């Protein structure tokens, strides 16, 4: 199924997910989100004890995965045998990666800082990060945007394409469901610490291969960017990735930080609470400016082309087997 992933990446790279289509029918993530919300409402009861809520969270994740895999498997089988079905299958698969929208949102942060100043930059970055942005200076806004680019390139582009290549539309959709569940219920809030435990752990597991692949893509991409250093990226990965609060996000963030010679991550505020975190690219330049976002976008764009090329080669090799 690497051919499906390859074609889906190409289509999404050029078209994205059209706004008119989103307004008309929504998006697979919104459909999955509604199902997660229903499971959360029905099965995450505050009157239950911690162990019961944890058990119900495991059940909710299993139900979510079963429904998504079943529906997408049936859809794939049907589309593969009807006239023009394979084309429709590619279009459906192209809704899973998010290359175009990720680049657009991150570029908006740099453009807002450049043309409209810090308040506009804060507003733009607030659309792609969950941290408090009201007190961020320009360097912190830039850092947040680049971190989001690195992490979301891994779980929003590489991971769905990777799993689609491994198991077709069902595997790609299942990954997207797991990732959506983690973002909705996989955080350590009083309501979701128990119920979202399974979603958070499962998301860590399924993102593991993509995070390592993303870091490798960033290292290779740095070879083609004059201002970047692949050797520094490798050193940052080895030194800093393991110190990140996430078992996966540290890999792409450290690679990006090392390649650009900057410091990412570190302490940040969520909901008024300061969270201590290690720096990725320890010792790198911390006074970032909007130009650094453009440099990070160069690396991500080249990494994306490398990913598409890799999947193209794998598709040819699998076709010949």
Automatic annotation (TrEMBL):
Q: Which UniProt keywords apply?
A: Cell membrane, Cobalamin biosynthesis, Ligase, Membrane, Transmembrane, Transmembrane helix
How does it sit in the bilayer?
A: Multi-pass membrane protein
One MF annotation (Gene Ontology) recorded for this entry: ligase activity
The places in or outside the cell where this protein is found are: Cell membrane
Classify the source by domain of life: Bacteria
Spans traversing the lipid bilayer? 20-37, 58-75, 81-98, 302-319
Q: A Pfam family name for this chain?
A: CobD_Cbib
InterPro entries, per database record: Cobalamin_biosynth_CobD/CbiB
Pathway assignment? Cofactor biosynthesis; adenosylcobalamin biosynthesis
The UniProt entry's sequence similarity note says: Belongs to the CobD/CbiB family.
Protein role? Converts cobyric acid to cobinamide by the addition of aminopropanol on the F carboxylic group.
Q: Which PANTHER family match?
A: COBALAMIN BIOSYNTHESIS PROTEIN CBIB
Protein name, per record: Cobalamin biosynthesis protein CobD
């Amino acid at each position: 199924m690497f051919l499906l992933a390859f074609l889906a990446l190409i289509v999404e790279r050029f078209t994205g997910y059209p706004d008119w289509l989103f307004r008309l029918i929504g998006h697979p993530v919104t459909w999955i989100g509604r199902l997660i919300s229903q499971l959360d409402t029905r099965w995450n009861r505050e009157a239950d004890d911690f162990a019961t809520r944890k058990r119900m969270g495991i059940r909710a994740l299993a139900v979510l995965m079963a429904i998504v895999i079943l529906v997408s498997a049936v859809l794939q089988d049907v589309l593969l045998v009807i006239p023009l079905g394979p084309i429709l299958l590619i279009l459906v698969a192209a809704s899973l990666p998010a290359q175009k929208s990720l680049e657009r949102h991150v570029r908006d942060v740099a453009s807002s800082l450049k043309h409209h100043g810090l308040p506009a930059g804060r507003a733009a970055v607030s659309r792609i990060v969950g941290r408090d942005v009201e007190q961020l200076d320009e360097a912190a806004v830039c850092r947040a945007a680049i971190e989001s680019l690195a992490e979301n390139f891994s779980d929003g582009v590489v991971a769905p394409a990777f799993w689609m290549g491994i198991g077709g539309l069902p595997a790609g959709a299942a990954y997207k469901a797991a990732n959506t569940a983690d973002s909705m219920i996989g955080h350590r809030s009083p309501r979701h610490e128990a119920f979202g435990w399974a979603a958070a752990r499962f998301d860590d597991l399924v993102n593991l291969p993509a995070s390592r692949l993303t870091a490798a893509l960033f290292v290779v991409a740095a070879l083609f960017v004059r201002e970047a250093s692949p050797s520094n990226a490798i050193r940052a990965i080895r030194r800093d990735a393991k110190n990140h609060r996430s078992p996966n996000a540290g890999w792409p963030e450290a690679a990006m930080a090392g390649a650009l010679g900057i410091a990412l991550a570190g302490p940040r505020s969520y909901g008024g609470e300061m969270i201590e975190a290690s720096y990725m690219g320890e010792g790198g330049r911390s006074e970032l400016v909007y130009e650094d976002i453009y440099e990070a976008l160069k690396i991500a764009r080249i990494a994306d082309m490398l990913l598409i090329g890799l999947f193209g080669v794998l598709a040819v090799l699998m076709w010949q087997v």
